Amino acid sequence: MVNASAVAFAIALPVLPAALPVLLVALAVAQAWAFIAGPRVRRRFSWSSPLPWMLLFYLAHLLGLLWTTNFDFAGLDLGIKAPLLVLPVLFLLGGPVADARGALRAFVLANTAAVLVCLVRALVRAALYVSQLGPEEALSGYTLSVPFFASDLAFFLHPTYMAMYLTLALVLLTRPALCGSWPAGRRWALGATLVVGVVLCASKAGWLVLLVLGVLFLMEHRRDRRMRRAILMGLSVALAAGIILFRTNAYVHERVMQVVDTLQEGAPTPDAANSTDDRRLVWHAAWPVAKAHPWLGVGTGDVKDELLRSYAAHGYVEPLRKQLNAHDQYLNTAVALGVGGVALLLAMVLVPLWAAVRRKEGLLLAFLLLNALNWTVESMLEVQAGVMFLGFFAWLLAAAHGERR
């Protein structure tokens, strides 16, 4: 039951996120039953895993209730972060997952299927645009391109989260112990589909993280000629596709130039209305709140209220209208819990990261970097897609390792 629940959870992550709370309950029930009915296996945490740090991070949010006033938001926040409590407890209850490889393979296939469904949906929408506007008008601007990029493409998830999931699926595909038995043609087809998905998500963070991980895996496999060639080919295809799209596609050109223009100009205007400027505005507004409450933060439930109050004081129109969080997990945690919360967040990544480097565990290293880098531009532990991703794979990788007392 535990293996089946893990596989179902891995499939639902990229294609059926609404089912994840139910599947988490199913996984908990299966693990509890295995604990009651099966042989008792005493487990202990390893500090080289994110799991104990996740548990401490959740307990810190519980402690943050002592100096909060908005208990409605606090309850919502603790509910979203509940996997950070549940999955470490499940690890302590259960023995090693017998078929972790099956769950990881299922995640690769589910992400590939998600890209294909999104592409078919984009083709249908593009055809509808042509039929409604006429070929000449539809092809004259970038209207026809819109269904194939960013939020319009990413049907199941926000494009930044979709890009993160796809990148992990690519990492899994490169691990010989996981997918090495698949025919080479299948692996190439899956890899190409996943790379196309990352490019079309049009997530600037997704593009950067894909490049960083690609360079790291080149270093890891520098003595493996076949793997080195495959990674170089994938990076070359992604880079070439990006350049071609930038030069030929008005939509992608506009997205990239938003970043270039933002970097060349000073502070954005208060009424700026693109994703890059939105982030700069919320960072600028969130930092004074964190500085004003350095040690304990504003509390688990008051973080959103204080951020919105700061947006209003600065006259930032879009962040206030959209009720944005800090769009940086480290900064968001600093506002909520102060330096203690940030220290736990950093330990959750850096301690296991150092252990992964020492033990040459490429998969754990890539997983941690994926989270750590994406947290710089998204408050990923404030939403289900980020919490479930971190919690599930931290649990699965630790359970697959099967450490025992």
Q: What is the overall shape?
A: globular
Q: Residue ranges: pLDDT <50 for 5 or more in a row?
A: none
C-alpha end-to-end distance: 24 Å
Q: Helix share of residues?
A: over 70%
Return the average pLDDT rounded to an integer.
Answer: 89
Number of helices: 20
Query: What letter string, H or E per element, gives the SSE order?
Result: HHHHHHHHHHHHHHHHHHHH
Number of strands: 0
Largest sheet geometry: none
Secondary structure class reads mainly alpha
Provide the gyration radius in Å: 22 Å
Strand content: under 5%
Oligomer kind: single chain
General description of the model:
The chain is an all-alpha fold and 405 residues long. The protein has a domain at 48-94 and 266-405. It contains 20 helices and no strands. It has helices at residues 2-15, 20-37, 50-63, 71-80, 83-93, 100-133, 135-140, 150-153, 159-173, 176-179, 184-200, 204-220, 225-248, 250-264, 275-292, 303-314, 317-322, 329-359, 362-374, 384-401. Helix 6 packs across helix 11, helix 9 runs antiparallel to helix 19 and helix 15 crosses helix 18. The longest helix is centred in the first third of the chain and has 34 residues, at 100-133. It starts with a helix and ends with a helix. The relative contact order is 0.14.
